[in-house]
Amino acid sequence: MKTNKIFSVNVLLAIIILIGASSCSKKSSSKAGSTATGWKINDKKGGFQFNSKFKKQATAPGLVMVEGGTFTMGKVQDDVMHDWNNTPNQQHVASFYMDETEVTNLMYMEYLDWLKRVFPPEDENYKNIYPGALPDTLVWRNRLGYNETYTNNYLRHPAYATYPVVGVNWIQAAEFSKWRTDRVNENTLETQGYLKKDAKLTDVKAESSFSTETYLNAPSKTFGGDDKIVLKGRKNSLSKPQKVAGGKGQAATTKTATNVYAQRSSGLILPEYRLPTEAEWEYAAAADVGQREYNIYKGQKKYPWSGSYTRSGKRKIKGDQLANFKQGKGDYGGIAGWSDDGADITNAVKEYPPNDFGLYDMAGNVAEWVADVYRPMVDDEVSDFNYFRGNLFTKNKIGDDGKVELVTSQNIAYDTLPNGRIVARNAPGQIAQVPVDEKETYLRQNFDKSDERNYRDGDKQSTRYFDFGNFDEGAKLSEGKRMYDSPKHNVTVDSLGSMVRKFDKSNKRTTLVNDDVRVYKGGSWRDRAYWLDPAQRRYFPQDMATDYIGFRCAMSRVGPKADKKKRARN
């Protein structure tokens, strides 16, 4: 017995020693630095620098996190037409962020104000930038309706400040998202000491403004190359020149500063604001997470809220409408004083309860633009992860000097839309973009050209009989061979500089579908309850606007799917 006790004590001591040695080795390995080389990371003397203290992505202004997962996309409850447009398919969406509310008039007016100050329309070089961003307020007009009050007041009057912006086409919504990215990152870098304080207000000019991509790729060219604005990381210990002691009989030397600008590896710069994909929008609107039990959904909801009705069943607000929509012919809200949804047209955001992701107005108020080009089919055989149709891959344009080429007042690119409106494709200070070429696509299997909008979409180029080898990427199919035989309106400029609008008057057109129509989701104040189902989908030309389509922004999440690890028992 005594021998056994001694043996047990010895074993226990050995275990304690092993644990101690293990903890010491862990401690020493962390002090040793890189697991690749053993070199010290973030050495004050120089070398590899990295934000090793990064915790998680900061939630950008206006956004809430939507944890990703799997769901059945396109599953509508009321499919009265048995429409191929809504074929259910299983998709997985990665975690992302989405605007808590639709973009409001106030938010969009901030954008307009910035454009007008930085690119004054009275300047000949920039005369089309601000007008090209203005919402079309004439969308409120009706041949047999009096809506001039909305035409004159809806965008700018304080009474409508927190109402969703309308009259914005898809192109304008996408441009707003890019602008928002730059302004948020500009503010972050100013706060962290990488940009001069208040430069965004006092120093910004047309040829001297901030662009996120320019800062990342050519920081010294940001703000027109003014190093009094683009600071060299004042809060970074390596941003100041380092004095290095000399050897025997040698004088001390000054080492050049390193890591003077914020980079991707700094963890400060957020991913871009953008329009959500159709899959993201539908997943976020359905919010099936509220119907989850363990690892299954108890049932897919008909609307963004639980239940099969548009009225609340909760005792406190029982009978209240959960969205504003058209309840019947000539009935946009109900009887005054009772059974009313509180709105004649749109309503202020956050007037109705949020869904289970904390998102407001994912049904009713306004329908919303999403990023996708419309096609009747969703090709889940090609992709069932982060599905998106509409990729136009580009790369930074490199100049003759081997450096990125910036847009200036002399080479701004403008697009003349089929309706005659002129919009700017880029702005001074941004990096010029060009389509990707064979350098990026050669021997790749995941993509083969710059424009992938038509990939396997059912048109002539998707058939087994198509002659791939004899077809150039930029070539167009002959008029008689286009499957999506949509109207082709045209705008030209005559010798006097006047616009000539040519309408396609052909009576042989069979569809409105083309590469310039975008999906919009959700029911609006003009729609019946049928369209409130998140799985419903419709399309509209990307260069046209209405009084019932708005938008909200999204942002991809970098890092883990969720902040906390989930376990089966939860």
What does this structure look like?
With 570 residues, the protein is of the alpha+beta class. Helices cover 18% and strands 12% of the residues. It contains 9 helices and 19 strands. The strands form 8 sheets. The chain has a 4-stranded mixed sheet with strand order 17-16-9-18. A 3-stranded antiparallel sheet has the order 1-4-19, with no helix packed on it. Strand 14 (490-493) and strand 15 (499-502) form a beta hairpin. The longest helix is centred in the first third of the chain and has 31 residues, at 2-32. It is globular and about 95 Å long. Residues 21-30 have low confidence and may be disordered.
Beta-sheet strand percentage?
5-15%
Mean pLDDT: 86
Termini Cα gap: 47 Å
One letter per element, helices H and strands E, the order comes to HEEEEHHHHHHEEHEEEEEEEHEEEEEE
Using only CA atoms, what is the Rg? 29 Å
Strand order of the largest sheet: 17-16-9-18
Based on the structure, what is the oligomeric state of the protein chains? Answer: single chain
The biggest beta sheet reads: 4 strands, mixed
Shape: globular
